[in-house]
Structures are given as structure tokens and as C-alpha cells.
């Protein structure tokens, strides 16, 4: 069983129902992503598990499961966890690097999904 991809998906689902609208939480003045304090890094990582709508969540999870299960079977759980973390951090860096003062939220698992998809595509 691909435990990393499964666990990430379950956490995203649970948080979606616990925090149905994460935008107020993520737009508080003390939690802006472009400030790289330890608190903000935690907020930015948490944002990778939150989604703005059911369509956003389901779109990410379908792609993550379809590509992620074969990737985790190939890489193993430890390397897949590294891929997930690296993909999420790269997505955050790209978001912040594109416009550090942007008011646009960093939200969702899309960076992780596309990192896993890219690995899956390159390993076929």
C-alpha cells in the first residue's frame, strides 16, 4: 500500500471538512507567505494540505492517486516522502519567487501533484 500518497490524500480530505474555507486563516496579516519566519514556513506547509473548493480538492487527489501510487511503488515510501516534500517546497519557492508581495494565496496540493506527475512522466 502506498502509505505516503494515501496518508497525504487522507489528511487533505480531513482538513477540507474541518476547515471548509481556509482563506481567512491564510490571509491574516501575521501569516503572509512571503515572510520566511519559522511560523510562516509552518503556515506555508499547512497550506499545501488545504483546498479552496471540493473541485480543487478532488482534481488534485485524483491526479495524485493515479500518478502517486505507481511512483510510490517504484520509489518506496521514504523516497516518495522526499519527493512530496521537495515538490511542495519548490511550489512554495516558485509562488514566492514570482512575486514576493503578491496577495494571492499559496493554497492546495497542486505543487505536490505536479512534482509527482513529472516524476511519473519521466520514469515511464
How would you portray this structure in words?
The chain is mainly α and 124 residues long. The protein has one domain (3-122): Rhomboid-like fold, CATH 1.20.1540.10. Helices cover 70% and strands 0% of the residues. It has 6 helices and no strands. It has helices at 3-18, 23-26, 38-47, 54-75, 77-98, 110-122. Helix 5 (77-98) packs across helix 6. The protein is globular and about 40 Å long. It starts with a helix and ends with a helix. The model is unreliable at 29-33 (pLDDT under 50).
Poorly predicted regions are: 29-33
In DSSP terms (H or I, runs of 4 or more residues), the helix count works out at: 6
Helix amount: over 70%
Q: Mean of residue pLDDT?
A: 83
- CATH architectural type: Up-down Bundle
CATH topology grouping: Rhomboid-like fold
Query: For the record, what CATH class applies?
Result: Mainly Alpha
The succession of helices and strands, N to C, reads HHHHHH
Strand content: under 5%
What is the end-to-end distance? Answer: 20 Å
Short note summarizing the structure:
By secondary structure, the protein is mainly α. The protein has helices at about 5-20, 25, 40-45, 55-75, 75-100, 110-120.
Please give a handful of descriptors for the protein shown.
124 residues, Rhomboid-like fold, 6 helices
Helix/strand layout:
Blueprint: H1 3-18, H2 23-26, H3 38-47, H4 54-75, H5 77-98, H6 110-122
Helix pairs in contact: 1-4, 4-5, 4-6, 5-6
Amino acid at each position: 500500500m502506498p502509505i505516503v500518497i494515501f496518508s497525504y490524500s487522507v489528511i487533505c480530505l480531513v482538513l477540507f471538512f474541518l476547515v471548509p474555507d481556509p482563506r481567512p486563516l491564510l490571509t491574516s496579516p501575521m501569516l503572509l507567505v512571503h515572510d520566511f519566519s519559522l511560523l510562516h514556513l509552518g503556515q506555508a506547509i499547512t497550506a499545501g494540505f488545504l483546498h479552496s473548493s471540493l473541485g480543487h480538492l478532488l482534481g488534485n487527489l485524483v491526479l495524485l492517486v493515479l500518478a502517486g501510487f505507481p511512483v510510490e511503488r517504484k520509489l518506496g515510501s521514504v523516497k516518495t516522502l522526499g519527493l512530496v516534500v521537495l515538490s511542495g517546497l519548490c511550489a512554495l519557492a516558485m509562488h514566492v519567487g514570482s512575486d514576493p508581495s503578491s496577495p494571492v494565496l499559496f493554497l492546495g496540493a497542486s505543487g505536490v501533484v505536479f512534482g509527482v506527475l513529472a516524476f511519473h512522466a519521466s520514469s515511464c
